[in-house]
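We modelled each protein-ligand pair independently. The example shown here corresponds to the pyridoxal-5'-phosphate entry; the chain sequence is given first, followed by the ligand as SMILES.
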Amino acid sequence: MTVRALARVNLAAIERNVVRLRRELADGVALCAVVKADGYGHGAVPSARAALAGGAGWLAVAAAEEARALRDAGIEAPVLVMGALSPGELDVALAAGADVVAWDERFVDAVAARGGGAVHVKLDTGMGRLGTRDAGCATRVAEVAAGTDGVRLAGAMTHFATADDRDDPFLAEQLARFRAWVGPLREAHPQIVVHAANSAATLRDAEAHFDLVRTGVAIYGLDPFGEDPAARDLEPALELRSWVAAVKALAPGESVGYGRRFVAREPTHVATVPIGYGDGVRRALTNNADVLVRGARLPLVGTVSMDNVTLDAGTPPAAATGDGAVLIGEQDGERITAEELARRLQTINYEVTCGLPVRVPRAYHRDGEDVP
Ligand SMILES: Cc1ncc(COP(=O)(O)O)c(C=O)c1O
């Protein structure tokens, strides 16, 4: 059966991306694979397994339920839940045996009241979201965690706001604030795992590596700087495919799609591909994308609808019913990256893959060999 829209994920690429990222790290520095948001749309469990096979020592998620899903799948690696947790979510995270993030003494008490667990204290060095801005408070939270029965002070962390902008000096400022806090803390508690870097910081500055890096986007072969992943030796793991379901001639003056946003100026052919915004192909790509058919770029013309897009296949038509169509990925040497779509959409590659809904089935393979 031909599937109308399919996201194919190469687990071997994820594994190799992790190996490649680990080459940036000094001996003894661990890699934590961030698999939140269903592995940035790639599938959390298969991505986690591939990352672990590539040498990741930790996994991170944002939500308690995401930790539980990893455990339900039988994954036993250390898991860090990085996000804010409601009391109910804290129950779930601790029951999953995940480490949690604290920046408030009451939260440490809540961990203790639930029978204990491992906490990582977060200093907000400039991201302005979670964590405390007050280094003294962060130290107090750490001391309370270290001194509370059943609670283990497992780590100290921060998160960078501008690591993906190589010209921005703010990373250095955040790093300096973090170092000033974490240095004395580590002296008092040498066992803690100190971590700060996301993918961009991992690739940009070895000073940010500490004991562990938390890499998300790059393990999927997406470039954290929004550039061509190949330039950094990253392999995109995901391709988004569909097929040509109909080809028809279009005479000058005839139009295609809602709102008649494409009107043929000369005789041409329109190829209809049954994938649309209901499959994560955003409507803002109307008259603003290419799709690969037979290894060539065909312009997406007319309005992206919920279930279909239309391509200008020219005359004679460069597409026939049954041809494969690639919206993200490679075909006969031609490539369309998530970064290209992100540029067209004025967003980031993260949002392109996270935006693929459950309607699009995921199929897994290792360099072309199907993985059940
Ligand atoms: C706290 C934290 N650490 C690490 C990451 C991973 O970032 P990236 O995907 O840019 O590597 C994220 C993702 O947003 C995050 O929120």
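Residues 278 and 321 are 22 Å apart (CA to CA).
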